[in-house]
Every structure is written in C-alpha cells, then in structure tokens.
Amino acid sequence: MDLNHLNIDPHLVYLLPFAFLFGLVMAALVLIPLWRICGKAGFSPWLSLLIFLPLGAPILLYVLAFARWRVVPAPQLGAGYPAYPPASYPVAAYPPAAPPTDPGNPYPRS
Question: Which of 40, 29, 57 is nearest to 48 (CA)?
Fold first, then answer.
C-alpha cells in the first residue's frame, strides 16, 4: 500500500500499533469500573457496553442516576458509637454572655 498519495508521513504509520494499544488501555480504564458499578447497582454488567455507542455515555449516566438500585443495604454499626445527641453536654469552660442592655437596638454603642 502506497501511503504517499494520502499525504501521510510514512514514519507515523509505525505509531499506529501504539495508538491502538493506547486506545485499548483507555477503554479498559473506563469499562472495568462501569462494569463493576452496573453490577453493584443491580443491573446487568453488559449495560456498561453502552459507553461505546454514540450517545451511550449520557444514556448510561441517566440510567444509573435515576433508576432504583436493587442492592441490599450495608449493615449499620450499632455498637461502639455514642448516641447522638448526647444525654448531657459537658460544662462550658467560660461563663455565658451577658444579655444585651437594649434589645431593640441592633447596633449598640459602648
């Protein structure tokens, strides 16, 4: 194949395998987390392949954002944490502030 009629530098052709490899790595970096997210959300992990279709990424984003996730909630830690609010607060280390002398005046002068 003669690439001279395409006005492509023949040396750039040697970079095509590296560009293809880079594309595969980047696709894996996107697909693997989406595969896990779809699986954890209760959807089929194959739904993550929508990312490769035109307008597939926004469709997948809206499906994941607004659909009901069918997951079992994680068990809550009941022991080891104090109840909130606590039954009694510690004693303040400073006295409370004095009430204002003229409550009707928002800008008191001293």
Answer: 57
